[in-house]
């Protein structure tokens, strides 16, 4: 009883408490007739503080499903700078109310259409989001401003959707949020978006891993320079359980570099020509052309172009200079492109080439090794059509390029994937494909020269194709 008296005295000393007709007013003797509690700011310079919690604290409250007793439970989220409230059935989830800054001008309003939202990129458990975003269309925009936002994911945690401050259109438009972070599990990541006075939720599926079988590969050319199992450099990496988790004995390996499901789908044809009749009807996503392979007809040149135009990836390192193969190269590098001899063991990887950077590391400003030190380079090409990846240090000509508009990659050396089975440093002028003791691609010393990155360069391209195939 004594505690209750003390509490009442504290409230009385801090403010004036009034009651009128069953309604309570604090610092007002005339509480509004539609309220049970009316709080007035004494001096118009005070406010009301609600419990302030982090996102993890909010979600840990976890009201029981359908618990009507907590319907409307209200807190302030210090991570998202939003007020959160619990909505009981049928929602049974935390929702948020985010405001916009007081600017002295009207703020934006619009009607969001989350059902029409589109997404870019893939989310995979344990893999940092890269190139992932979602776009929400809206109607009834009034041209007003909206504040920058940072929205933490619920369901699958670990992700954040952000958007910079801007202005809504008058009428229809769209808003694009960039997703960053690393998902903590597989499942559904939800982003509760409140902007322009409208609220809706965008859901993202977080996959258990990239499905290897979706990147169906056709590998042609001499062995062991293509995908030839552990005997080849490519095979040593692609069948490594500590790189791609689905090959871990008994299940997936949570410590693997690339979380995956399923198994590789590879059709291997050890041929010097032909073998691509089913290229555009076999469901292939990647054509890998290794040492000594040659195109023998204009029809085959056209087939390769059709494959690329339909979204396929081609990695070409046959080292062949015959006319049909040259015509295929010219389709991407320009009609005047010519092949010559690159008489050097090393090429310089260009610092500005974005194609050299990827999941396995950054190979820009490193070296590309030529296993026989006598290979092909390219001159008289159209620089507006290709992104030069590597150039000869002796001729200055291009020895590796990517089409600027398509997923076509050309290398002048047929032995870029040749593997000795030993860890760097590797001596001699063969086997520039470098792996560490766990058969993981590394940048290392080969043939008396450090900073050689063949395995990094090639695996970056293959993983990019794997992600695109999902």
Please name the defining characteristics of this protein.
single chain, Immunoglobulin-like, 9-stranded mixed beta sheet, 6-stranded antiparallel beta sheet, elongated, signal
Catalogue the unreliable spans.
4-14, 100-106
Strand order of the largest sheet: 23-21-24-25-34-33-32-27-30
Write down the overall geometry. elongated
- Which CATH C-level class of the largest domain is it? Alpha Beta
In CATH, what is the homologous superfamily of the largest domain? Class I glutamine amidotransferase (GATase) domain
Keywords: Signal
Describe this structure in words.
Helix 4 (298-309) runs parallel beside helix 5. The strands form ten sheets. Strands 23-21-24-25-34-33-32-27-30 form a nine-stranded mixed β-sheet, with helices on both faces. It starts with a helix and ends with a helix. Helix content is 14%, strand content 34%. It has six helices and 36 strands. 39% of the residues are buried. The chain folds into three domains: 37-97, no CATH class; 103-207, Immunoglobulin-like (Sandwich); 210-468, Rossmann fold, CATH 3.40.50. Residues 4-14 and 100-106 have low confidence and may be disordered. Keywords: Signal. Residues 1-19 form the signal peptide.
Describe, in short, the structure shown.
The chain is an alpha+beta fold and 470 residues long.
Blueprint of the fold:
Elements: H1 2-14, E1 17-20, E2 23-26, E3 37-39, E4 52-53, H2 55-61, E5 74-77, E6 82-87, E7 93-97, E8 111-112, E9 118-120, E10 123-124, E11 132-142, E12 145-146, E13 149-152, E14 154-155, E15 159-163, E16 166-167, E17 170-181, E18 187-195, E19 198-207, E20 210-211, E21 216-220, H3 233-238, E22 260-261, E23 265-269, E24 286-289, H4 298-309, E25 313-316, H5 323-333, E26 338-342, E27 346-349, E28 357-358, E29 361-362, E30 367-369, E31 375-379, E32 386-392, E33 398-403, E34 408-411, E35 444-446, E36 449-452, H6 454-468
Parallel strand pairs: 2-3, 4-5, 10-19, 20-22, 21-23, 21-24, 24-25, 25-34
Antiparallel strand pairs: 1-2, 5-6, 6-7, 8-11, 9-11, 11-17, 12-16, 13-15, 14-18, 15-17, 18-19, 26-31, 27-30, 27-32, 28-29, 32-33, 33-34, 35-36
Helix pairs in contact: 4-5
């Amino acid at each position: 009883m004594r505690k209750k008296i003390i509490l009442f005295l504290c409230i009385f000393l801090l403010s004036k408490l009034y009651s009128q007709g069953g309604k309570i007013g604090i610092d007002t003797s005339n509480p509004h007739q539609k309220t049970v509690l009316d709080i007035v700011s004494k001096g118009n310079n005070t406010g009301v503080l609600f419990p302030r919690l982090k996102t993890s604290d909010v979600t840990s409250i976890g009201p029981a499903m359908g618990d009507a007793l907590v319907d409307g439970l209200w807190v302030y989220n210090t991570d998202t700078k939003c007020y959160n409230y619990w909505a009981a059935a049928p929602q049974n989830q935390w929702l948020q109310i985010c405001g916009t800054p007081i600017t002295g001008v009207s703020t934006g309003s619009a009607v969001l259409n989350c059902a029409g939202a589109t997404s870019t990129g893939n989310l995979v458990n344990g893999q940092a989001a890269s190139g992932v975003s979602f776009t929400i269309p809206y109607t009834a925009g009034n041209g007003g401003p909206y504040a920058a936002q940072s929205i933490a994911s619920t369901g699958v945690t670990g992700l954040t959707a952000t958007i910079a401050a801007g202005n809504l259109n008058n009428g229809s438009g769209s808003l694009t949020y960039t997703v960053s972070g690393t998902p903590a599990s597989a499942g559904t990541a939800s982003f509760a978006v409140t902007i322009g006075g409208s609220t809706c939720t965008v859901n993202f599926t977080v996959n258990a891993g990239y499905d290897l079988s979706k990147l169906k590969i056709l590998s042609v050319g001499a062995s062991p320079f293509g995908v030839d199992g552990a005997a080849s450099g490519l095979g040593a990496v692609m069948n490594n359980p500590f790189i791609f988790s689905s090959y871990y004995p008994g299940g997936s390996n949570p410590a693997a570099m690339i979380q995956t499901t399923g198994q590789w789908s590879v059709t291997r044809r050890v041929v010097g020509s032909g073998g691509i009749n089913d290229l555009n009807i076999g469901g292939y996503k990647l054509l890998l052309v290794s040492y000594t392979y040659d195109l023998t007809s204009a029809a085959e040149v056209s087939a390769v172009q059709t494959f690329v135009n339909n979204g396929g990836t081609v990695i070409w390192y046959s080292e062949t200079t015959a006319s049909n193969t040259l015509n295929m190269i010219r389709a991407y590098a320009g009609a005047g492109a010519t092949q010559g001899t690159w008489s050097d063991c090393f090429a310089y990887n260009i610092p500005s080439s974005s194609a050299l950077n990827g999941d396995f590391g950054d190979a820009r400003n490193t070296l590309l090794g030529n296993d026989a030190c006598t290979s092909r380079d390219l001159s008289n090409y159209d620089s507006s059509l290709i992104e030069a990846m590597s150039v000869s240090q002796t001729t200055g000509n291009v020895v590796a390029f990517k089409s600027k508009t398509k997923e076509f990659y050309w290398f002048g050396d047929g032995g870029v994937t040749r593997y000795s089975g030993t860890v760097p440093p590797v001596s001699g002028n063969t086997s520039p494909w470098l792996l560490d003791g766990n058969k993981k691609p590394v940048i290392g010393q080969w043939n008396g020269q450090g900073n050689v990155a063949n395995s990094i360069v090639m695996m970056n391209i293959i993983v990019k194709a794997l992600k695109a195939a999902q």
